[in-house]
Give the backbone structure.
Amino acid sequence: MNLKILGSIAIVAGTAIGAGMLALPLATAALGIIPAIALLVVIWGVSAYTSLLMLEVNLKAGVGDNVHAITGKTLGKKGQFIQGASFLSLLFALTAAYLTGGSSLLVLKAKTLFDVALDNQVAVVAFTLTLGVVAALGVAWVDKLSRILFSLMIVLLVLVVLFLFPEVSIAKMATGALTDSIGDSWMAAIPVVFTSFGFHVCIATLVRYLDGDSVSLRKVLLIGSTIPLVCYILWLLVTLGTVGGETVHGFAGSLPSLVSALQDIAAQPWVSKCISLFADLALVTSFLGVTMSLFDFIAELTRAKSNLAGKVQTWLITFVPPLLCALYVPEGFVAVLGFAAIPLVVMIIFLPVAMAMGQRKQASTSYQVSGGVPGMLLAALLGAVIIAAQLWVAL
């Protein structure tokens, strides 16, 4: 396996792993560890299948085209509009979620490090202004910073899992929280788990990077998507297995409460610091990647000039909507991540299925995913279930 393939696997895994990992214990605590792992495996299967479907669409449409161009070729202007609207909605929702989660961790840090009771709205604005500026610096800066921070995050994750694993209790791990409706618990968990496997945005870039080599690309997508699955399972084992599903469910989606509980369990002070830093880096790396993509997309959409006035205009459009959401929905980290599942389903399930069905009407000898029409219809059905679950929670 050459370095290009290894690097591509890292890109797929790195795109998926991020702040969504922090929400997984909060979202699945009511289910219990076995049902939660089963849900992870099913969602991974859907994500892996649709990634291969997107690979098929990319290879047939033409190596080197971006997602927007491929959608236009196969579904026309209407398809491009749906794809663009879904992409914009997804990035706005993720940015709002990360602002909410990041500001709550900032409040926790101010209290534990300096014994200062920082107002949540002040923390939201401070977090936005501090890290939001990085998005405007350009992809070169974000790329260099993200590589360093992501590598450190993975090291910290390994350390945290290794040192918390001896504290795992089988009794705590085996049971979920006692809730009035197990159906509601499943509905709340499904969209958040799905959002945690959203690595598909990098596929078109990887197709170009690996020169359309379908064998290597298939290997990259399957291995790259399996790494997050393994990381998520280990993370659930050490969180639900130490803190307990009932206790985590009682946090009501509060990220600082989860981090504090894990720190209390850590026997060594430096392990406690690793947990805190890991949570910070998971949020920051995701925030930087998402906001950079959103900033660039809005700049292209509005045809903003590259001067200071143009960048300020783009920055305001990028951050004001999610900032308002974070200010007025202060405990919405898990909830907003769940909402992001709706545009994500459109982007990585419905559109690829529609494009693949259109392409398969024409004779072709290029790469094609097995499963045929039944496989695509099943994926679309599961996508509809994910959207229905989120709408159920919202209503």
Summary: The CA atoms of residues 83 and 351 lie 8 Å apart. The chain has a mean pLDDT of 86. The first helix runs from residue 3 to 16.
